[in-house]
């Protein structure tokens, strides 16, 4: 045996990158790019966009910012591409190859980003003038965008796994039982203190509600929750702590308190999801029926607008 026997080589492996962290980074970059574009356009074009239609042709920026200007036409292209990109999300559900790329939740996040970016970009492309076929398409696009936000909210009301498959009622109740045990083990927040977080309509009342009233009740509960969570913190804080956390709306530096508050908020949200689950599913299905015609209508009108511009030009 050689005197210089080689020792086993240990190869240090770099820790695997966190997919969620990379997704959040990409999403944050996307929002920053959209926000930066809007701020730059607003700052540069404010003096032009604030002019009336008669005075705009006299502006030095007219040839740049009008819909057919050097910047305006490119904004139109970008806005149209953003909106067409929205159809990748529903296409993913029907195209097996695309369905294997990433998770549905990640795709939905970028779907929402594009759904909000498109109206902003198109607004600047139109130079805040909405008339004719393009104007009709614009207002339908806004309706699509707003209904998309409603859909995102409804989607969040139906708990899902990482693969975006809906969790069963049993899985939800098992998770609720774990949170109940976790809250029972902590000593900082009493059952009486936690009670306001779990003030919901009865199951019988929820089932008898109309879909519109059920949606209103879900929104009302969600709007109340931050105030009741802040109330939990205030009960555990002195005057200085209340001032430092803006009345309990900001987290404290007390780790055990924040863990208890987090568990209580999560438990309250999950209990709400379980209570309204069947109604949320019904509203979500109805939303799909309403959202799709608006989306397809905009696609047809926007495509017609583009074709007319290519054939006859745009003044």
How is this structure best described in words?
The chain starts with 18 loop residues before the first helix and ends with a helix. The protein has helices spanning 19-49, 62-65, 72-85, 88-92, 96-99, 104-125, 132-156, 169-185, 191-194, 203-208, 211-236, 239-244, 255-275, 277-312. The protein has 315 residues and is mostly helical. The longest helix has 36 residues, at 277-312. The model is unreliable at 1-16 (pLDDT under 50). Helix 8 packs antiparallel against helix 13 (255-275) and helix 11 packs across helix 14 (277-312). It is 70% helix and 0% strand. It has 2 domains: 61-157 and 288-312; 169-275, no CATH class.
Structural descriptors:
single chain; disordered N terminus; mainly alpha; 315 residues; globular; 14 helices
Helix/strand-derived category reads mainly alpha
* Backbone CA Rg: 26 Å
Distance between the termini: 87 Å
Give a short account of the largest sheet. Answer: none
- H/I helix tally: 14
Mean pLDDT: 84
Shape: globular
The figure for the number of domains is 2
Helix content: over 70%
pLDDT < 50 stretches: 1-16
Could you state the order of secondary-structure elements as H and E? HHHHHHHHHHHHHH
Percentage of β-strand residues: under 5%
Record field, number of beta strands: 0
Topology:
Layout: H1 19-49, H2 62-65, H3 72-85, H4 88-92, H5 96-99, H6 104-125, H7 132-156, H8 169-185, H9 191-194, H10 203-208, H11 211-236, H12 239-244, H13 255-275, H14 277-312
């Amino acid at each position: 045996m050689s005197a210089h026997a080689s020792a086993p080589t240990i190869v240090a492996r770099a820790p695997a990158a966190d997919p969620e962290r990379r997704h959040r980074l990409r999403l944050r970059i996307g929002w920053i790019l959209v926000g930066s574009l809007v701020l730059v356009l607003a700052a540069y074009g404010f003096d032009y966009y604030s002019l009336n239609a008669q005075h705009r042709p006299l502006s030095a920026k007219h040839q740049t910012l009008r819909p057919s200007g050097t910047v305006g036409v490119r904004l139109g292209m970008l806005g149209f591409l953003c909106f067409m990109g929205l159809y990748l999300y529903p296409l993913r559900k029907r195209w097996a190859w695309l369905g294997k790329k990433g998770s549905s939740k990640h795709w939905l996040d970028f779907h929402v980003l594009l759904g909000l970016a498109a109206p902003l970009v198109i607004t600047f492309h139109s130079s805040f003038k909405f008339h004719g076929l393009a104007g009709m398409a614009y207002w339908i696009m806004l309706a699509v965008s707003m209904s998309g936000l409603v859909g995102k909210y409804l989607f969040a009301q139906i708990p899902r796994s990482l693969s975006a498959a809906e969790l069963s009622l049993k899985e939800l109740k098992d998770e609720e039982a774990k949170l109940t045990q976790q809250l029972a083990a902590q000593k900082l927040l009493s059952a009486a203190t936690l009670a306001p977080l779990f003030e919901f309509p009865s199951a019988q009342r929820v089932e008898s509600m109309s879909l519109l009233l059920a949606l209103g009740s879900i929104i009302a509960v969600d709007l109340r929750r931050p105030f009741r969570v802040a109330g939990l913190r205030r009960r555990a804080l002195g005057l200085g702590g209340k001032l430092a956390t803006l009345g309990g709306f900001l987290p404290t530096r007390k780790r055990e308190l924040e863990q208890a508050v987090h568990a209580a908020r999560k438990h309250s949200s999950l209990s709400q999801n379980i209570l309204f689950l069947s109604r949320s599913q019904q509203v979500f299905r109805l939303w799909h029926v309403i959202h799709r015609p608006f989306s397809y209508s905009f696609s047809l009108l926007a495509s017609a607008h583009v074709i007319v511009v290519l054939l006859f030009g745009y003044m």
